[in-house]
Write a structure and sequence with these properties.
Layout: H1 2-6, H2 14-19, H3 24-32, H4 37-48, H5 50-78
Length: about 80
Amino acid sequence: KKENVGNIVSPQVKKENVGNIMSPQVKKENVGNIVSPNVSKENVVIPQVIPPNIQIPNIMPIMDNNQPPNIMPIMDNNQP
């Protein structure tokens, strides 16, 4: 009859069914798809490149008008 008691070991196989609960972890991979919106942010960076182009034509005249006439005499007046 002790051999019949050995059949009680079979319930341990049910623990393998509990291992199937690990499958929900695969759903976390679907959450990884949320990272794709980050690519859209890269598209936002492209328009940011446009304003620097506007600054180039504006800075050019400002640099020429302010640096040579203003800084040049100030340096000469302070040194001697």
